[in-house]
Design brief:
GO terms for molecular function: DNA binding; DNA-binding transcription factor activity. This protein has about 240 residues and is mostly helical. The chain is about 65% helix and about 5% strand. Helix 2 packs across helix 4 and helix 9 packs antiparallel against helix 10.
Length: about 240
């Protein structure tokens, strides 16, 4: 998914996607949904069996994810989901603050009514997922909200950088968050979008800053990494075979 399209949309079109793109999209979403926790070993053979593709295709997908820094490929030991240290977590959020500020300013300038309406639908979907207790889906939709804001900026390099930071943020939250509820408060998303639609740059940037600070306030830097079984994570793929 190298263009400025959401993984939600790509999932619906996955039938026409190249095989390595499909694998990439599934793993990327699993990271966003925190079904693949930090430190999870990404066994090429197991993934090949799950997705019914060759190890070459798996390696291409893992390489793309490593370029986004959400997967670490270790020589002679295989790939694992990245497990950010406390210092790395702090650096990610420093970068996130800077990036989100730039994205928000450009979104105020470039946002279209169609894009704003799409984001409002994402917020509704996130709200429904939260009420239904599907926190994994709610977290993914929250990540999609921030990716769509980056798309709204009209700046492709910012969008690509944001993909990496959103994924890394999800890993950090999975590793260090204290609360079990979704990290993005729905009212904060709605308020931010209202300010963007109103072309109020100062208010939009303030709300974004407060939103990120709220996410950070819920992190416990003494958190521990958990592990996961690849066949359980991708049971939805296996059930379709």
């Amino acid at each position: 998914m190298s263009d400025l399209s959401s993984s939600v949309e790509a999932e619906g079109k996955s039938g026409s996607m190249p095989q390595d793109d499909k694998v990439y999209a599934h793993i990327f979403d699993a990271i966003l949904e925190r079904r693949l926790p930090p430190g999870t070993k990404l066994n090429e053979e197991a993934l090949g069996d799950i997705f019914s593709v060759s190890r070459t295709i798996i390696r291409r997908a893992l390489l793309r994810l490593s370029h986004e820094q959400v997967v670490v490929i270790r020589p002679n030991r295989g790939a694992v989901v990245a497990s950010p240290s406390v210092e790395e977590a702090k650096q990610v959020f420093i970068a996130r603050h800077t990036l989100e500020d730039a994205i928000t300013k450009l979104a105020v300038i470039n946002a279209t009514s169609k894009q704003i309406n799409h984001l409002r639908k994402l917020i509704v979907a996130e709200n429904v997922a939260t009420k239904q207790g599907d926190l994994g889906k709610a977290i993914r939709l929250s990540g999609e909200f921030h990716l769509k804001l980056a798309e709204m900026s009209g700046n492709a390099p910012l969008f690509n950088f944001q993909r990496s930071l959103v994924s890394l943020s999800s890993l950090i939250i999975a590793q260090y968050e204290v609360a079990t509820s979704t990290h993005c408060v729905l009212d904060e998303h709605s308020g931010l979008l209202d300010a963007i639609e109103a072309k109020d740059t100062e208010q939009a940037c303030l709300l974004m800053r407060e939103h990120l600070e709220h996410i950070e306030s819920k992190l416990n830097l003494d958190g521990e990494t958990v592990s996961s079984d690849l066949h359980v994570v991708f049971s939805n793929v296996l059930s379709k075979k």
